[in-house]
Protein backbone atom coordinates (compact mmCIF):
# COMPACT_ATOMS: atom_id res chain seq x y z
CA UNK A 1 0.00 0.00 0.00
CA UNK A 2 1.50 3.31 -1.10
CA UNK A 3 0.93 6.20 1.28
CA UNK A 4 1.36 9.93 0.86
CA UNK A 5 1.67 12.65 3.51
CA UNK A 6 0.41 16.24 3.21
CA UNK A 7 1.05 18.92 5.85
CA UNK A 8 -1.33 21.89 5.89
CA UNK A 9 0.28 24.93 7.44
CA UNK A 10 -1.32 28.30 8.10
CA UNK A 11 1.01 30.07 5.68
CA UNK A 12 3.76 32.69 5.79
CA UNK A 13 5.43 35.02 3.31
CA UNK A 14 8.77 34.46 5.01
CA UNK A 15 10.99 32.04 3.06
CA UNK A 16 12.18 30.46 6.32
CA UNK A 17 8.73 28.90 6.87
CA UNK A 18 8.86 27.11 3.50
CA UNK A 19 12.45 26.05 4.08
CA UNK A 20 11.57 24.57 7.47
CA UNK A 21 8.57 22.73 6.05
CA UNK A 22 10.73 21.26 3.28
CA UNK A 23 13.13 19.88 5.89
CA UNK A 24 10.29 18.49 8.01
CA UNK A 25 8.62 16.84 5.00
CA UNK A 26 11.92 15.25 3.94
CA UNK A 27 12.48 13.82 7.43
CA UNK A 28 8.85 12.67 7.83
CA UNK A 29 8.92 10.94 4.43
CA UNK A 30 12.03 9.01 5.36
CA UNK A 31 11.02 8.18 8.93
CA UNK A 32 7.39 7.32 8.12
CA UNK A 33 8.09 5.31 4.96
CA UNK A 34 5.87 7.47 2.73
CA UNK A 35 5.96 7.53 -1.06
CA UNK A 36 6.15 11.31 -0.76
CA UNK A 37 5.56 14.11 1.74
CA UNK A 38 4.37 17.53 0.65
CA UNK A 39 3.16 20.74 2.32
CA UNK A 40 0.65 23.43 1.44
CA UNK A 41 -0.81 26.55 3.04
CA UNK A 42 -4.28 27.44 4.22
CA UNK A 43 -3.76 31.11 3.39
CA UNK A 44 -1.26 33.94 2.81
CA UNK A 45 0.78 32.40 -0.01
CA UNK A 46 0.84 29.40 -2.40
CA UNK A 47 0.97 26.46 -2.61
CA UNK A 48 -2.61 26.53 -1.29
CA UNK A 49 -4.66 23.47 -0.33
CA UNK A 50 -6.00 23.10 -3.87
CA UNK A 51 -2.44 23.06 -5.21
CA UNK A 52 -1.30 20.57 -2.59
CA UNK A 53 -4.18 18.12 -3.08
CA UNK A 54 -3.91 18.17 -6.89
CA UNK A 55 -0.17 17.50 -6.70
CA UNK A 56 -0.70 14.59 -4.30
CA UNK A 57 -3.45 13.00 -6.38
CA UNK A 58 -1.21 12.93 -9.45
CA UNK A 59 0.92 10.38 -7.62
CA UNK A 60 0.25 6.65 -7.57
CA UNK A 61 -0.95 6.30 -3.95
CA UNK A 62 -3.68 4.40 -2.14
CA UNK A 63 -4.06 6.74 0.83
CA UNK A 64 -3.19 10.31 1.76
CA UNK A 65 -2.57 11.23 5.37
CA UNK A 66 -3.36 14.91 5.92
CA UNK A 67 -1.79 16.68 8.90
CA UNK A 68 -3.18 20.04 10.09
CA UNK A 69 0.19 21.52 11.08
CA UNK A 70 -1.11 23.90 13.73
CA UNK A 71 -0.26 24.30 17.42
CA UNK A 72 -3.86 25.12 18.37
CA UNK A 73 -7.10 23.22 17.66
CA UNK A 74 -8.95 26.37 16.65
CA UNK A 75 -10.84 27.83 13.72
CA UNK A 76 -7.88 27.62 11.33
CA UNK A 77 -7.71 23.86 11.83
CA UNK A 78 -11.45 23.49 11.22
CA UNK A 79 -11.16 25.60 8.06
CA UNK A 80 -8.25 23.51 6.77
CA UNK A 81 -10.05 20.19 7.40
CA UNK A 82 -13.30 21.45 5.84
CA UNK A 83 -11.44 22.64 2.76
CA UNK A 84 -9.50 19.42 2.22
CA UNK A 85 -12.42 17.02 2.72
CA UNK A 86 -14.20 18.58 -0.28
CA UNK A 87 -11.75 16.74 -2.53
CA UNK A 88 -12.47 13.24 -1.16
CA UNK A 89 -15.54 12.63 -3.32
CA UNK A 90 -13.54 13.15 -6.51
CA UNK A 91 -10.93 10.45 -5.87
CA UNK A 92 -10.52 6.82 -4.84
CA UNK A 93 -7.51 7.72 -2.74
CA UNK A 94 -8.47 7.36 0.92
CA UNK A 95 -8.07 10.58 2.93
CA UNK A 96 -7.00 10.27 6.57
CA UNK A 97 -6.97 13.47 8.66
CA UNK A 98 -4.91 13.64 11.85
CA UNK A 99 -5.25 15.75 14.98
CA UNK A 100 -3.26 19.02 14.99
CA UNK A 101 0.06 19.43 16.82
CA UNK A 102 -1.46 20.19 20.22
CA UNK A 103 -2.10 18.74 23.69
CA UNK A 104 0.82 16.32 23.53
CA UNK A 105 3.79 15.64 25.81
CA UNK A 106 6.16 15.71 22.84
CA UNK A 107 5.59 19.47 22.60
CA UNK A 108 6.24 19.86 26.32
CA UNK A 109 9.52 17.97 25.98
CA UNK A 110 10.47 20.01 22.93
CA UNK A 111 9.91 23.24 24.87
CA UNK A 112 11.96 21.83 27.76
CA UNK A 113 14.80 21.24 25.31
CA UNK A 114 14.51 24.80 24.03
CA UNK A 115 14.65 26.10 27.60
CA UNK A 116 17.68 23.95 28.41
CA UNK A 117 19.48 25.17 25.29
CA UNK A 118 18.85 28.79 26.27
CA UNK A 119 20.11 28.14 29.82
CA UNK A 120 23.22 26.37 28.54
CA UNK A 121 23.94 29.20 26.11
CA UNK A 122 23.52 31.70 28.93
CA UNK A 123 25.78 29.56 31.17
CA UNK A 124 23.09 29.40 33.86
CA UNK A 125 23.80 26.69 36.44
CA UNK A 126 20.69 27.10 38.59
CA UNK A 127 18.42 24.05 39.07
CA UNK A 128 15.12 24.05 37.17
CA UNK A 129 13.11 24.83 40.32
CA UNK A 130 14.89 28.19 40.49
CA UNK A 131 14.04 29.13 36.90
CA UNK A 132 10.99 31.14 35.77
CA UNK A 133 9.46 30.67 32.31
CA UNK A 134 7.18 32.82 30.15
CA UNK A 135 5.61 31.14 27.11
CA UNK A 136 4.57 33.54 24.32
CA UNK A 137 1.91 32.16 21.97
CA UNK A 138 0.08 33.69 19.04
CA UNK A 139 -3.41 34.21 20.49
CA UNK A 140 -6.80 33.14 19.16
CA UNK A 141 -10.50 33.82 19.58
CA UNK A 142 -11.09 30.08 19.86
CA UNK A 143 -11.17 28.93 23.53
CA UNK A 144 -9.49 25.65 22.60
CA UNK A 145 -6.35 27.58 21.69
CA UNK A 146 -5.91 28.83 25.25
CA UNK A 147 -6.59 25.31 26.54
CA UNK A 148 -3.77 24.03 24.34
CA UNK A 149 -1.15 26.48 25.57
CA UNK A 150 -2.27 25.98 29.16
CA UNK A 151 -1.63 22.26 28.76
CA UNK A 152 2.02 23.00 27.94
CA UNK A 153 2.33 25.61 30.70
CA UNK A 154 0.79 23.32 33.34
CA UNK A 155 3.13 20.47 32.44
CA UNK A 156 6.17 22.76 32.51
CA UNK A 157 4.99 24.03 35.89
CA UNK A 158 5.91 20.67 37.38
CA UNK A 159 9.60 21.42 36.76
CA UNK A 160 10.17 25.17 36.98
CA UNK A 161 9.70 27.75 39.75
CA UNK A 162 6.96 29.66 37.92
CA UNK A 163 5.54 29.27 34.41
CA UNK A 164 3.26 31.91 32.89
CA UNK A 165 1.94 32.54 29.39
CA UNK A 166 0.93 35.55 27.28
CA UNK A 167 -0.04 36.26 23.69
CA UNK A 168 1.31 38.28 20.79
CA UNK A 169 -2.13 39.42 19.67
CA UNK A 170 -5.91 38.93 19.79
CA UNK A 171 -6.21 38.01 23.48
CA UNK A 172 -4.78 38.85 26.87
CA UNK A 173 -2.53 38.77 28.75
CA UNK A 174 -0.46 40.53 26.09
CA UNK A 175 3.35 40.54 26.12
CA UNK A 176 3.69 43.65 28.27
CA UNK A 177 1.25 42.21 30.79
CA UNK A 178 3.12 38.91 30.73
CA UNK A 179 6.44 40.55 31.54
CA UNK A 180 4.73 42.57 34.28
CA UNK A 181 3.40 39.34 35.84
CA UNK A 182 6.89 37.87 35.80
CA UNK A 183 8.41 40.99 37.35
CA UNK A 184 6.09 40.65 40.36
CA UNK A 185 7.52 37.16 40.99
CA UNK A 186 11.06 38.63 41.09
CA UNK A 187 12.74 35.86 39.09
CA UNK A 188 16.47 35.31 39.29
CA UNK A 189 16.39 34.08 35.69
CA UNK A 190 13.47 34.32 33.26
CA UNK A 191 13.41 32.20 30.11
CA UNK A 192 11.06 33.51 27.41
CA UNK A 193 9.78 30.79 25.08
CA UNK A 194 8.78 31.66 21.52
CA UNK A 195 5.95 29.12 21.10
CA UNK A 196 5.74 29.34 17.31
CA UNK A 197 6.30 26.72 14.63
CA UNK A 198 8.25 28.83 12.14
CA UNK A 199 10.68 31.69 11.93
CA UNK A 200 8.09 33.88 10.26
CA UNK A 201 7.38 37.59 10.68
CA UNK A 202 5.96 37.05 14.18
CA UNK A 203 9.22 35.53 15.44
CA UNK A 204 11.56 37.77 13.43
CA UNK A 205 9.95 41.14 14.16
CA UNK A 206 6.48 41.25 15.74
CA UNK A 207 7.26 39.68 19.13
CA UNK A 208 10.38 41.77 19.68
CA UNK A 209 8.48 44.95 18.85
CA UNK A 210 6.47 44.35 22.04
CA UNK A 211 8.97 42.34 24.08
CA UNK A 212 11.93 44.72 24.00
CA UNK A 213 10.00 47.77 25.31
CA UNK A 214 8.40 45.60 28.01
CA UNK A 215 11.77 44.32 29.19
CA UNK A 216 13.24 47.82 29.20
CA UNK A 217 10.31 49.06 31.28
CA UNK A 218 10.28 46.30 33.89
CA UNK A 219 14.04 45.56 34.10
CA UNK A 220 14.28 41.94 35.20
CA UNK A 221 17.53 40.41 36.48
CA UNK A 222 18.44 38.03 33.65
CA UNK A 223 16.31 37.20 30.62
CA UNK A 224 17.05 34.45 28.11
CA UNK A 225 15.08 33.88 24.92
CA UNK A 226 14.60 30.48 23.26
CA UNK A 227 14.47 29.56 19.62
CA UNK A 228 11.06 28.88 18.07
CA UNK A 229 10.02 25.23 17.67
CA UNK A 230 11.30 24.93 14.10
CA UNK A 231 12.64 21.74 12.56
CA UNK A 232 13.36 19.87 15.77
CA UNK A 233 13.33 16.08 15.34
CA UNK A 234 10.63 15.89 18.02
CA UNK A 235 8.25 17.72 15.67
CA UNK A 236 8.89 15.07 13.04
CA UNK A 237 8.24 12.37 15.65
CA UNK A 238 4.96 14.03 16.60
CA UNK A 239 3.86 14.21 12.95
CA UNK A 240 4.56 10.49 12.53
CA UNK A 241 2.74 9.66 15.76
CA UNK A 242 -0.32 11.70 14.77
CA UNK A 243 -0.30 10.01 11.36
CA UNK A 244 -0.08 6.53 12.85
CA UNK A 245 -3.07 7.25 15.08
CA UNK A 246 -5.33 7.45 12.03
CA UNK A 247 -3.47 5.04 9.74
CA UNK A 248 -3.77 2.11 12.14
UniProtKB/TrEMBL annotation:
GO terms for molecular function: lyase activity; metal ion binding. The keyword Metal-binding applies. InterPro entries: CbiX-like, Sirohydro_Cobaltochel/CbiX. It holds the Pfam family CbiX. Transmembrane segments: none annotated. Keywords: Lyase, Metal-binding. PANTHER family: SIROHYDROCHLORIN FERROCHELATASE, CHLOROPLASTIC. This is Cobalamin (Vitamin B12) biosynthesis CbiX protein.
